[in-house]
Amino acid sequence: MKKEKLIKKYDKQVKVYEKNRNHSTLSTWRKKLINKAYGNVLEVGVGAGANFPYYTEETVQVTGVDFSSEMIKSAKQAASDYHFRAEFLQEDVDHLTLAPNSYDCIVSTLSLCSYAKPHELMNKFNDWCREDGIVLLMEHGLSSNLFLSYSQKILDPLFTKISGCHCNRDILKIVEKSDLQLINIETYWSGIVYMICAKPNKN
Ligand SMILES: C[S@@+](CC[C@H](N)C(=O)[O-])C[C@H]1O[C@@H](n2cnc3c(N)ncnc32)[C@H](O)[C@@H]1O
Fold this sequence. Notes:
S-adenosylmethionine-dependent methyltransferase activity, Ubiquinone/menaquinone biosynthesis C-methylase UbiE, alpha/beta
């Protein structure tokens, strides 16, 4: 799908993401993941700021990136309710260049499904994150259940057309093949949802 079309699709979905900020299961997972964030945080595909309530660490400063102007507007508004310092970049992460080693923590939730080059982006995370930093991911992808994964593969073109994202990405393989080093993996919903903590590997 062309980038402009994808951006418009996400612009139009902003109200849905605002409504889903308090989705109970997702909130539990978000809390578990985001509680680990600290320091200078880069949150990629920030959406409507659904992770903001869970940045509890005193020192957190968040840079939220999104290519959708509507999502950025919504995230800015949401951030004003919280104590941390926040700034926003309206950029396409697939073309984003940032200084190496500039973040303590990089976060991406439910967004790996829509990046054009997810594997390359994981390597960029490896570059942008400080050596002693942490990469926190909560992503959905191909189920470990054979029947579900078969259905996901078949439905992917339709799913992408409707939502803008892919449902057939092998999340673990994407991270494993990147430069990042896995620290912890948890899976939910028949292996559709992955919660991953990784650290950069600078060797
Ligand atoms: C499925 S939503 C998830 C939003 C949020 N992270 C959450 O957990 O609710 C994906 C978000 O990533 C953004 N996005 C997708 N591809 C992007 C890209 N290449 N560059 C920047 N933002 C992107 C979309 O605009 C959208 O806000």
